[in-house]
Amino acid sequence: MFGIEIIDASLLPAMLVALVAGLISFLSPCVLPVVPPYLAYMSGVSMSDLSHSRNKALLAALFFVMGLSTVFLLLGVAASAAGRALLQYQAYFNTVAGVIVMIFGAHFVGVYRIGFLDREARLDAGDQGGSAFGAYILGLAFAFGWTPCIGPQLGAILSLAASEASVARGTLLLAIYALGLGVPFLLVAAFLPRLTGAMNWMKRHMERIERAMGLLLWTIGLLMLTGGFSALSFWLLDTFPALGSLG
């Protein structure tokens, strides 16, 4: 399904955007601050013992990422299938989706505030701490429950996925988004003591991170609205002719 034949220069810009959007989702105000407590809960250890239980934390983080990736991949399949079914209305869809993504971007830049994007809607996964299965269930809950916070970034990637003519290509974009969001969890689990300073720095500069997130979303929306992704793909082919051999 995910063979090299589905990847070409036209998909590379969207793949890069999906990766960056996943990383920015990790850095969002309702995700980054709770990463260490989540790791401790999923590992079944206290916060003070987390740095001495690296293997447990890494295993829990791996199953957690698998859980959230399951949801994102299913969303990717659904969005891509819907987009393919509505292929004749693709131009209208891209215009509407581009405008919505730009509105989300303006919210994070600070032009105005949209109330529901400042709230979290977490799902209770129950008493599932301390086991790989519990971490997987918590990953599922995370993917469903944090959508008000990571929804704009996720919505932008779903819009890109729906604009693809292939279900496989659209699902790949969601897989890359999940990679961008999930890999930092694994890195924090593996190197938590060393990354504490960096995470604290990010928390102190959360407002700037939000603005960068908003600028990215606004740019994605503008590219969707104007057909800029196609223009960027042609530029990549002209600048790096070897990319033409992909696919």
TrEMBL record:
GO cellular component entries: membrane
Ranges of residues in domain Cytochrome C biogenesis protein transmembrane: 14-225
Coiled coil (UniProt feature): none
Keyword Oxidoreductase listed: yes
Primary location: membrane
Subcellular location: Membrane
Transmembrane segments annotated in the record for this chain: 12-36, 57-79, 91-112, 133-160, 172-192, 213-237
Keywords, ordered alphabetically: Cytochrome c-type biogenesis, Membrane, Oxidoreductase, Transmembrane, Transmembrane helix
GO terms of biological process kind: cytochrome complex assembly
Membrane topology field: Multi-pass membrane protein
Highest taxon of the lineage: Bacteria
Broadest EC class assigned to this enzyme: oxidoreductase
GO terms of molecular function: protein-disulfide reductase [NAD(P)H] activity
Annotated InterPro entries: Cyt_c_assmbl_TM_dom, Cytochrome_c-biogenesis_DsbD
Alphabetical list of Pfam families matching this protein: DsbD_TM
E.C. code: 1.8.1.8
PANTHER family: CYTOCHROME C-TYPE BIOGENESIS PROTEIN HI_1454-RELATED (PTHR31272)
Protein family: Belongs to the DsbD family.
Full protein name: Thiol:disulfide interchange protein DsbD
Gene for this chain: dsbD_1
